[in-house]
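Weekly sync notes, structure subgroup
Attendees: PM, AL, DS (notes)

Item 1: joint prediction request from the bench team. They want all three components modeled as one assembly rather than separately. Inputs as received:
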Amino acid sequence: MGKSGYVVRRLLRTIPIVIGVTLVTFLILHFTPGDPVRIMLGPYATQENIAILKEQYGLDHPLHIQYITWLGNILQGEFGTSIRYNRPVLELVQDRVGITLMLTLSGLFISVTLGSVLGIFAALRQNSWLDYLCTFQAMFWISIPGFWLAIIFLYIFGLQLRWVPIGGLTGFSSVILPALVIGLQEEAWFARPMRAEMLGVLNEGYISAARAKGVKYIRVVGIHALRNVMIPMITMLALRLPWVIAGSVVVEVVFAWGGMGSLLVNSVLARDFPVVQGILLIIAITVVLANLLADLVYSLIDPRIRVEGGKK
Amino acid sequence: MNTAVNIENIEKEIKELKQKRTSQLFLTWLRFKRNRLSMVGLSFVLVIIFIAIFAPLLTPYDPYDTNPFRRLENPSREHLLGTDELGRDLLTRLLYGSRIALQVGILIVLFEGFIGITLGLLAGYLGRWVDEIIMRLVDILRSFPVIILAMAIAGIMGQGLYNVVIAIGLVGWTTYARMVRGKILSIKESEFVEAAFSIGESTPSVILRYILPNVLPTAVIMICIMMPTALIASATLSFLGVGVQPPLPCWGSIAAAGRDYITRAPWISTSAGFFIMFTVLGFNFIGDGLRDAFDPTSKRN
Amino acid sequence: MEEIILKIEDLKVAFDTEEGDVEALDGVELEVKKGTFHGLIGETGCGKSVTGKTVLRLLDNNARIKGGRIHYGNIDLLKLTEKQMEKQIRGNEIAMIFQDPGSSLNPLFTIKYQIEEAVSMYSNLPRNKWNQAILEALQRVKLPDAANLMHRYPHQLSGGMKQRVMIAMMLACQPQLLIADEPTTALDVSIQAQFIKVLRDLKENLNLTVLYITHDLAVISELCDYVSVMYAGRIAENLTTRDLFKNPQHPYTDKLVHSVLGVTTTLEALEEIPGSVPRLINPPAGCRFHPRCQEAIAICSKEAPPLQELAPNHTVACHRR
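Output from the run, pasted for the record:
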């Protein structure tokens, strides 16, 4: 048993979710009010083109056969062909995924760092003006739509002050604004739980015990408390990941970076369903894997998990 | 004889517990009222509701009246926020926009609330495989970013106000389901439900008389807490062009249109976003106040 | 004349709560002599733990020290800055173990890590001797298989073992004074006995001074030389353990000892004293014990009795003595 048992169990729990995710992605196509192929190809499609696409999708077969065929293709890395670009979906995604990934990760980095620092200080100075400011600013950022914050930042720092380049991805300085937009928006979701968890942990007996030993307060907070707080924060991180991805998709559209976001929006508008499905699936699987990773990291930090074999 | 007395006692107990609940609701309201931020939030929301109801009285213009000769005018005494790219009065469109926003927001929370609360009730009350299936579905849907899945659904179903509601609702219900399920699991164990069963009440009657009324406050808070997400998600879909379509005056699409004229008329996007922020902030303050009022220990240890 | 290591004078501590101010301590006076075990006994909520935590200045955020002095040698601990407390007092002069061994050890670190923190700060040993020091610390409290044990995490130990680890950890700081805040309360009876035996051995082998906070008279009689009896935030009586059982003067002490002897050894039996412990949010005027006291006279409800010396090592706060 021990840790490997936990890992195996956790891996097994992921399988039905991955299957479910593929099912949802597959079935979405069938939300169309009419024939998906006709909707994809538009009103002027030739009979011949329709037949080819139907063939490609296996739409003449019953639903479960369609799903299995589709899944089989996916497993072989065959995500279908874009109708608009007439190129394999995977290729289109590969060209753009780096941009979105960079934005997601840098946004995540800013939000976690900023949120944690603010949350910790708010907890250490409970009920001070800093504490209230932290709560208030969190509320403020989560009340602003990301696209709007992106426009405002673009206008102020790009157009008016000309501190950063506008439009497109042109080197490091152009990353700052979009990453900051995501970072500020998401920071709120880390600052408040961090504050609450920190307050809870600081009341624990082992904190008093560490202080009674004469351990410096900064070390008590930075090592004894922080490590305990990290456990719920990792869960929070996994929970927020889908939102950060969605945020970077939207922000990237505003900044005209031409990443997965623009591809997705354009494909949705052009009813290029293979691309939409492909992107959805890739994002969802990423989230599932990130959750898995979070739980594994969690088990590394918390020794109790190895014996009990589950979350406490 | 003895049992009769017993039942009487239990009924008395149940009555007391019910009274306790009402007084608790009152206490909650008092706590809510004392919270200054939540009162600010409430006034923000009331202002938006007022605007939505009396929009035609607040502006002399029609939100759909275009005027090709007066496009993108600067703010003036005549047009307080200027005109948009089709010469429509911007302020008028923003004021009418509150109708769309509230309508979409309310429809979303009702729709997702209905699905989520129903499924949460079923999962929590029936347990076993029903619970297993519903909660796995929740796990699966939570792997998709709400906005992105909603975007795909809206794109596939076609744009439009109701499709936005359906798209976001189909994804957003999971939060309600989880909350309601958790609440039910705790109520199921509670003394008054056991007491009710012990005096021979039937399952549906227990659900209706004891469980539902206890879940209701949770559901109401949930709806207030989910409103900001619903508003921002729908505005984002509209901004991206897959949501509510022009010429309907929707804040998200007004902000999107304004983006093309950001150098010439920055106030278009700015003011549209401001309306969204104002409304969402209002609901967030209320939601936060409600959460604290119902669970005063949660925030200030 | 023995040297006094800790002298608390007129200590007043209040807590801000939602219901209002709670005067948890109202003029606590006691002296701890070097090399002795000093018991601090009282019912739950009488302020004995608060007294212990105040000495180390480890009170919760909502507590305020309103007055008094805590002399440690010739230093007034209440005048030190937080930094000075951290650097000079906590650990290397005064250490403390707490009631709940389950929560007193950080669940995410090994026993070794947590003791090493103390060793690294207070011993002058080179790094390669630390392991040896940790081993010795664990062996000193009679923990079996210490070499193996130190690599374990707290959740892998029993409550009694955790509490012994706590002592080992605090002793590794090499303090002059150890404050033990109800260390046995959370333990099973048989484990308690074991634990007390460990303490007794330590008492014999090290010249340790301990302020032992408890509500258990049996522990007092086994371990302590001197006792302070607390009631509702004040000291009722300071006396020797011998006097506690043979010659209690304060009516409360008297009731405490006599209601307990022969029935059970813990203060649960105090329920037998008529009335209930006053709530400190609105304490009775005068002597706080007077509503429950059978000897009360008019003045008892008006004036708080000061501590007066009856004999050497025996002070009592009662108008009738």
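Discussion: Chain A touches chain C at residues 126, 203-206, 208-217, 224, 227-228, 301-304, 307 (CB under 8 Å).
Action: AL to compare against the crosslinking data before next sync.
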